[in-house]
Design a protein that fits this description.
By secondary structure, the chain is α/β, with parallel strands linked by helices. It has nine helices and seven strands; from the N terminus they run αβαβαββαβααβαααβ. The protein has a seven-stranded mixed beta sheet with strand order 3-2-1-4-5-7-6, sandwiched between helices. Strand 2, helix 3 and strand 3 form a beta-alpha-beta unit. Helix 1 packs parallel to helix 2 and helix 1 packs across helix 7. The two termini are 31 Å apart. The structure holds S-adenosylmethionine.
């Protein structure tokens, strides 16, 4: 697994964060799938499927004949197999930028929170569209913005954005995608949905992720251990005693693209 491309890793802790993310974001994603994808497609594909939360959501919402999940982490592919079973689901270990030939003619390709981590997101979108069936749809769901006045959450987000930027990745990729695809003849829709989970849930997700990447050199070169400890403590405080915490709001960009 080329870890350098994916800064959040696939440790047990990273997997637990994806579990929490999966349950937190499932309602907005389910609504998106219901509104934008055909029911009972022959083939639906989940790219960058993580631990398989989105794969199961795809299967249970759309009832495809076959659902293929793709991730380059062997651990995540295994966890997806365990979660989804083998009835109508295949989990494949592969790079989303080099998909096996057999992933083609898909009626639905779904991508959530992956383009943030790719260095050339638009080139990836172009590659994936080639794998659609005529009339098929590529559904993209990525972060447009995350707003909060809670200091620990805001400080974490600043550092995360900085760390991703140092790796040529973009946290708030939604605006960029929308601007680049606005005049695309295959664009069917590009909308933003707002979503405000409990601040404590956000703090737990952020705390797990922070542990995963805070020792990366691009972070420790720029920030003293005391500063990083202060952020970790602040996240812990919001996670365990959230009564006074300011709210946090995600704006998710949801884009539907047709085949060429
Ligand atoms: C932030 S997670 C999102 C997981 C899932 N889509 C969700 O929303 O819960 C991004 C996933 O993409 C995978 N990933 C990142 N770059 C990849 C690549 N080039 N090829 C395959 N998988 C990749 C990571 O291993 C990780 O599981």
């Amino acid at each position: 697994m080329p870890q350098s491309d994916y800064t959040f890793g696939d440790s047990d802790l990273a997997a637990r964060r994806l579990e929490l993310l999966g349950s937190t974001f499932q309602d907005t994603t389910r609504d998106f799938l219901r509104a934008a994808a055909p029911n009972e497609p022959a083939l639906a594909v989940d790219l960058g499927s993580g631990t398989g939360h989105t794969t199961v959501l795809l299967r249970e919402t759309l009832h495809p004949t076959l659902t293929i999940a793709v991730d380059f982490s062997p651990a995540y592919v295994e966890q997806t197999r365990e979660r989804a079973g083998e009835d109508g689901v295949e989990a494949i270990e592969a790079d989303v930028l080099n998909l096996p030939e057999r992933i083609g003619g898909a009626e639905v390709i779904f991508v959530r929170m992956l383009l943030t981590h790719l260095r050339e997101p638009l080139a990836a979108v172009a590659l994936w569209r080639e794998r659609l069936a005529p009339g098929g749809v590529l559904l993209l769901e990525e972060v447009e913005s995350i707003a909060t006045e809670e200091l620990a959450l805001a400080r974490y987000l600043e550092l995360q954005e900085e760390m991703l930027h140092a790796n040529d990745n973009t946290l708030k990729i939604g605006t960029e995608l929308d601007a680049a695809l606005r005049d695309d003849p295959g664009l069917r829709s590009s909308e933003v949905v707002e979503f405000s989970p409990p601040a404590a849930t956000a703090a737990r997700m952020f705390g797990m992720n922070f542990t995963t990447w805070r020792e990366r050199p691009e972070v420790t070169d720029a920030h003293a251990p005391e500063e990083l400890d202060t952020i970790a403590k602040g996240l812990g405080r919001v996670a365990t005693a959230p009564e006074d915490a300011a709210p946090i709001t995600w704006r998710m960009r949801q884009i539907v693209l047709g085949s060429y």
